[in-house]
Design brief:
This protein has 520 residues and is an alpha+beta fold. A six-stranded mixed beta sheet has the order 7-3-4-5-6-19. The protein is built from twelve helices and 19 strands. It folds into two domains: 395 residues, Alkaline Phosphatase, subunit A (3-Layer(aba) Sandwich), CATH 3.40.720.10; 62 residues. The longest helix has 29 residues. The N terminus is likely disordered. A hairpin with a 4-residue loop joins strand 16 and strand 17. GO terms for molecular function: arylsulfatase activity; metal ion binding. Its cofactor is Ca(2+). Belongs to the sulfatase family.
């Protein structure tokens, strides 16, 4: 009973929906124009960990030796940067092969299919395709059988039997598809070992917090780098029963409030272990909210406030403008707000610099050390231009015109929202990056983000005297970067994303992938 009362007190929320994240911002530095390098998670995370535009490495994740060797490092929860190359055990893209010393979490992405949710990334589309094949094969089997029995068709029984067997297999696959996806994609690893397959989602919050606390206790006497990637604020919005119904904003709000509580638990652990004053804490997101994650009248992918667009929408602010909070008591000025353009790519060189290392000299690093800006010893960001790619297509670019205090945004390509007049690509998972469902703008769309952050008012030569000067200057910067860009093989094209049974991680003899290695 006492434990339950303490739990209820711990879960009490004040009038703020996110009191712990708010506390981080109040005690640290908040970046109000913090930009991800892509509007979807995998390329954004690759850029965050390498300090490079994802297009430079084909959205790849080859980050070996990028993490300073003298840090104890760990990645917790969602990785989503690949796992295997040639076999189910080579783990070529595993965090431990790319600079981290410990990993605990999901190597793949969190999906609605992991909870057999009403929103599906794979299952519904695959079931539809299998169903079409089933109908075709079953119809063929019936026609062949009827023709054989009525002697209208002269053929042996062998093709009739095989077509019937194929129909039975397709029927079975259709019925078992959801279970197969859960076992194939939704599992938990510790380092190179599979601990749960499939994951028991209600346990993940407590397991993550326990793992974080254990890591901090083990390493509090030496330098460490801990990357915690929450599974929250992402479909299927797995929320423990203690937070369900707590928020005025539905299930998404419940999920946000639980994540905020988890942030508070981690901060409390830092306090308890005496680490607060010598630990730099950074809070961010890899992309904006997913507007298409909608079912009926319920919005499950979040919302992006005044910013237009969302996840997967190329260069619109709603997909790439993300939270940016740095807290380091006694070092960074509390309550400082920085409105300069900054990027998730800046975190890598900043951490390397703080660790006493040197960024790699054999490749272009697009990020900059943020410490002078965070400390207030520099007034302006080192980013004069930031380019916004959608896969390999350049959709937009921004120019920080420092002498006039203006931030301009030029859109060369934008997705066509569906249906007409909508604010997202409803009916699709994400908006397309190229093809017939995007619009190429000649001349490009121009916005003044310093006055119009919601990108509501398109500027034209008739309304903006600097139109041609701004568009021309941005175009020069784009051409200069693209001349120096060396294309790399795509890591996330269709062949690389096609399921290959021989690469499937399995904690038992395939396809019997089932284990619960974690203690209850």
């Amino acid at each position: 009973t006492g434990r339950k009362k303490r739990r209820e007190t711990m879960l009490h929320l004040d009038h703020s929906w996110t009191p712990n994240i708010d506390r981080l911002a109040e005690d640290g530095v908040m970046l109000t124009q913090h930009i991800s390098a892509a509007s979807v998670c995998t390329p954004s995370r690759a850029a965050f960990l390498t300090g490079r535009y994802p297009v430079r490495s084909g959205w790849s994740f080859f980050i070996t030796n990028h993490v300073p060797w003298f840090l104890t490092t760990a990645a917790q929860r969602k990785w989503h940067l690949g796992l295997n190359c040639e076999s189910s055990w080579d783990h070529c893209h595993h965090p431990l092969r790319h600079g981290f010393g410990h990993f605990y979490g999901m190597p793949f992405s969190m999906m609605g299919d992991c909870a057999r949710w009403e929103l599906s990334e794979k299952r519904v589309a695959l079931e539809r395709e299998l169903s079409l094949c089933l109908h075709a094969v079953a119809s063929a089997a019936l026609m062949l059988a009827a023709g054989k029995l009525t002697r209208l068709i002269r053929l042996p029984w062998t093709p009739v039997i095989w077509s019937a067997v194929a129909a039975i297999l397709l029927f079975t696959a259709t019925r078992l598809l959801g279970t197969l996806i859960v076992h194939a994609d939704c599992f938990l690893m510790r380092d190179h070992s599979i601990m749960e397959q499939p994951m028991r989602l209600p346990r993940t919050t407590s397991l993550l917090l326990h793992e974080v606390a254990s890591f901090l206790k083990r390493n509090k006497q030496r330098p460490f780098l801990l990357l915690v990637s929450f599974l929250h604020v992402h479909t299927p919005l797995v929320t423990t029963e203690h937070f369900l119904g707590k928020s005025l904003h539905g299930l998404y709000g419940d999920n946000v409030e639980e994540m905020d509580w988890m942030v508070g638990q981690i901060l409390d652990t830092l306090d308890k272990e005496g680490l607060t004053n010598n630990t730099l804490v950074y809070f961010t997101s890899d992309n904006g909210g997913s507007l298409e994650s909608q079912h009926g009248n319920h919005q499950y992918g979040g919302w992006n406030g005044i910013y237009k667009g969302g996840k997967g929408m190329g260069g619109w602010e709603g997909g790439i403008r993300v939270p940016g909070i740095f807290r380091w008591p006694g070092v960074l000025p509390a309550g400082r707000v920085v409105a300069e353009p900054t990027s998730l790519m800046d975190v890598f060189p900043t951490v390397v610099q703080l660790g006493g290392g040197q960024v790699p000299q054999d490749r272009v690093i697009d990020g900059w050390d943020l410490l002078p800006l965070l400390l207030g010893t520099a007034q302006h960001s080192d980013h004069e231009f930031l380019l916004h790619y959608c896969e390999t297509a350049l959709h937009a670019a921004r120019w920080h015109q420092r002498d006039r205090g203006r931030v301009w945004k030029v859109h060369y390509t934008t997705p066509e929202f569906q249906p007409a007049g909508a604010s997202a690509c409803y009916g699709r998972g994400v908006c397309p990056c190229f093809g017939e469902e995007v619009t190429h703008h000649h001349p490009p769309l121009l916005f003044d983000l310093s006055r119009d952050p919601s990108e509501s008012h398109v500027l034209t030569p008739a309304t903006e005297p600097l139109f041609y000067e701004v568009v021309g200057r941005v175009q020069q910067a784009v051409e200069a970067q693209q001349r120096a860009l060396r294309p790399a093989p795509l890591q996330l094209d269709t062949p690389h994303n096609t399921w290959k049974p021989w690469l499937q991680p399995c904690c038992g003899p395939f396809p019997l992938c089932w284990c619960h290695g974690e203690d209850d």
